[in-house]
Amino acid sequence: MTATYEVRGQVAVITLNNPPVNGMGLVTRQAVAAGINRAEDDAAIKAVVITGAGAAFSGGADIKEFGSPKALAEPNLLSLISLVEACSKPVVAAIHSVCMGGGLELSLGCHYRIAAAGTKVALPEVKLGLLPGAGGTQRLPRALGVEPALNMIVSGEPVNSELLAQVPGQKLFDRMAEGDLMTAALALAEEVADVRPLPRVRDLKARFIEKNANPDAFFQFARNMVGGMSKNFPAPLRCLEAVAASVTMKFDDGIKAERAGFAALMVTPESGALRHAFFAERATTKIADVPADTPVRQIAKIAVIGAGTMGGGISMNFLNAGLPVVMLETKQEALDRGVATIRKNYEAQLKKGKLKQDKLDARMSLLSTTLNYADIGDADLVIEAVFEEIGVKQAVFKQLDEVMKPGAILASNTSTLDLNAIANFTRRPQDVVGMHFFSPANVMKLLEVVRGAATAKDVLATVMALAKKIRKTAVVSGVCDGFIGNRMIEQYSRQAGFLLDEGCSPAQVDRAAEKFGFAMGPFRMGDLAGNDIGWAIRKRRYQEKPNLRYSKSADLLCELGRFGQKTQAGWYDYQAGKRDAIPSPVVAEMLDKHRAALAITPRQISDDEIVHRLVYSLVNEAAHLLEEGIAQRASDVDMVYLTGYGFPLWRGGPMCYADQVGLFNVVQAMKRFAKNPLDDAEFWQPAPLLARLVAAGKTFS
Ligand code: NAD
Predict the structure, then answer these.
(1) CA within 20 to 30 Å of 300's CA: 163, 211, 349, 469, which one?
(2) What is the dihedral sign for C-alpha 515, 518, 523, 524?
(3) Strands, E assignment, 520-656
């Protein structure tokens, strides 16, 4: 049963019971409607209480039904709420824990609301690129007041019930429950059983809390604010217009306006992308052959080898989560430097008011250091973040094999080395796994979990669970050069290089990429990360794949010592202490000479061509990764790019974008690119998976 019905004296109690958060799926809606009808028909019943079992009143729509016909099947949420509102007996919502989205809208259709303290109340639809479509935009301004309702609807953020109860003149909560919620709700139901007419939120006037508010001026100001803050997302402004309708229109017309807004948003690519990302994030945790109930190993103490850029950032993740960390280095100076950097990072957060002194002290007290492997043997997990040289890794893993207790997980943060080779430096390859953090490791959401040939299932399950604890988006990758993210970015960088050869300036490519929505174009990105890193990788590639074509422009840049921001010169010029990228005449001249040497006449290249070559190179390489089983699913690739590479969220990731463009169109464009003699025709042959999907008229998702 997804909702139960029981009689307490003269009151019928309908309890939503659809774990985990009492989502308002079709079966639940049917059960609530049946309960209301039963109460109507029973002359002995004088009032109704609706509440939720377990850890929520209701978290809102049932995400499993999203986009399916079930979401709209009758009774849909609007019909159910109308039924509740039209009930001839008073209906009381007894709200606790979580009351969000459709759950809040249902409660607003009830005649009375009583809430427990500490309830998180929200209309989060905007986060999926939508607006609350079951009356929320019309009833919340009437119940709570226009200004706070607008804030909640446009931000989607939860607000605590006791704060809402303090809003002057609010009618959202008739009462805050003191003591047991159910006892208080039943008492309220008895008390109002005979009160008529029944109060309905729809009959209230949407009112401003501020006296003498000028609605036109208020909404114009809000439009400017919201429009400025939500540039690439249409939903927040639509939310605002729906709230404005609650002030300017009659209730039923406002509901129609809300419906129209909801329907319009539902078909926007932005909402499609946000909903895709929402499900993609949840899907990352599933590993086909590792059942969800796989037992995990206990992780209570962590050791980190190497206290450099990555070691320090990695350690902070665990300190933040309250887990003790011991850092090991070869020299005391390196340890001191590492600890000082961590402290400096925390102090910067303290200054910004993001961290309190006692938290800072608590975190630092969880950190210890050592020069001696004997001190880390009892750690449950050790993460290696030493120099990226196979010999150094070998020495470290041989040591770890000697000292670590049986069952300890041995992880490497390597970006480019063969994880299977590293695992085989030990006598326990089943305990070895890759944990590929991104820099800065304490900030970036992405964690690639690299599954070696021998990695045990419970090791994977443990690391995935731990990732959740430290709030990372963990994506499983098989072993290959560059794993998912960097193997794809190499193709993207190659395209960026060809674009320079053919006539683009670095700034033109960056502008086009940034206009598309990338946080940073490829050349500004290179300057930030250090162009020497790519240089080192290419030198290796020239040995491994002598026939693979590369633009030589990036090598020429590095030969000039222009490594990027750290040398105050890269693709751009930089002034001391500043990050502004200034187009460089030296680079322009270098590129001119380079083109002349290759006898290339530069051509005008459109922003569309730039963006499509960059993005489709990601897509085609990812299709190979899927075919090879390195990536589990296309949506995992999207999560890698959304959380680790600054791909615009409103486009949903490269694979989602390709689906939206249409894979047929993507392949057509690739065929055109293949004809360009200055590009790499072989690379642009559609990956077999991509070709198959196009032939079958399918998408990645
Ligand atoms: P880093 O040079 O900043 O730090 C490496 C640290 O390891 C140094 O402090 C060094 O003293 C220490 N070290 C070297 N040999 C050691 C040994 N035998 N025992 C103990 N400590 C030793 O380098 P980093 O940028 O932190 O990179 C570390 C690892 O992380 C590399 O494998 C790298 O590929 C990987 N990685 C780096 C990034 C990045 O953006 N920097 C991103 C992802 C992964």
Answers:
(1) 349
(2) positive
(3) 572-573, 582-583
> Does residue 297 belong to any structural domain of this protein?
no
pLDDT at 393: 97
Which atom of ligand 1 lies nearest, measured to the CA of 437?
43
Are 443 and 541 in the same domain? no
CA proximity to 415, closest of 493, 479, 496, 471: 479
pLDDT at 67: 74
Where does the pLDDT of residue 577 fall: very low under 50, low under 70, confident under 90, or very high at 90 and above?
confident
Please tell me the predicted confidence (pLDDT) of residue 175.
97
> Across the chain, what does the average pLDDT equal?
96
Q: Do 537 and 627 fall into the same domain?
A: yes
Of 442, 477, 512, which residue sits at a domain end? 477
Tell me, yes or no, if 40 is annotated catalytic. Answer: no
Long-range contacts of 217-226 (CB under 8 A, 24+ apart): 218/146, 218/147, 219/244, 219/247, 222/150, 226/154
| Cα separation, 16 vs 93, whole angstroms | 11
Q: pLDDT tens digits, residue range 68-84?
A: 888 889 999 999 999 99
CATH number of the domain that residue 140 is part of? 3.90.226.10
Stated as kind and residue range, the H or E segment containing 410 is: strand 409-412
**The one catalytic residue among 6, 40, 85, 105:** 105
- Measured at the CA of 665, the angle between CA 661 and CA 668, to 5 degrees, comes to 150
* Model confidence pLDDT, tens digit, residues 594-610: 999 999 999 999 999 99
Ligand 1 proximity of 305 Cβ (cutoff 6 Å): yes
**Residue 386 CA: which ligand 1 atom is closest?**
7
Residue 397 CA to ligand 1 center (angstroms) comes to 14
Q: What is the Cα–Cα distance from 622 to 488, expressed in whole angstroms?
A: 7
105 is catalytic: yes
Q: Is the CB of 392 under 6 A from ligand 1?
A: yes
Q: Does residue 315 surpass a pLDDT of 80?
A: yes
Rounded to the nearest whole angstrom, what is the distance from the C-alpha of residue 339 to the centroid of ligand 1? Answer: 15
State how many domains the chain has.
3
Residue among 317, 387, 398 to mutate when testing ligand 1 (max atoms within 8 A of CB): 387
Same domain, 580 and 531: yes
Determine the pLDDT at residue 514: 97
In a domain, 563, yes or no: yes
pLDDT in tens, 408-465: 999 999 999 999 999 999 999 999 999 999 999 999 999 999 999 999 999 999 999 9
For residues 43 and 101, membership in a common domain is answered with yes
> Residue 395 belongs to what domain range?
302-477
Distances (CA, A) of 156 to 125, 129, 262, 472: 6, 10, 15, 22
CA of 220 to the centre of ligand 1 (A): 52
- What's the mean pLDDT in 586-595? 97
Report CA(630)–ligand 1 centroid distance (Å).
25
Domain match, 660 and 569 both: yes
Looking at the structure, tell me whether residues 500 and 463 fall in a common domain: no
pTM, full prediction: 0.93
Mean pLDDT across the stretch 572-593?
95
- Which residue in 6, 40, 65, 125 is the catalytic one? 125
Contact 279, 635 (CB under 8 A): yes
pLDDT above 90 coverage of the chain, percent: 95
CA of 327 to the centre of ligand 1 (A): 12
Cα 644 to Cα 438: distance, rounded to the nearest angstrom: 7
User: Best of 304, 341, 386 to mutate for ligand 1, by most ligand atoms within 8 A of CB?
Assistant: 386
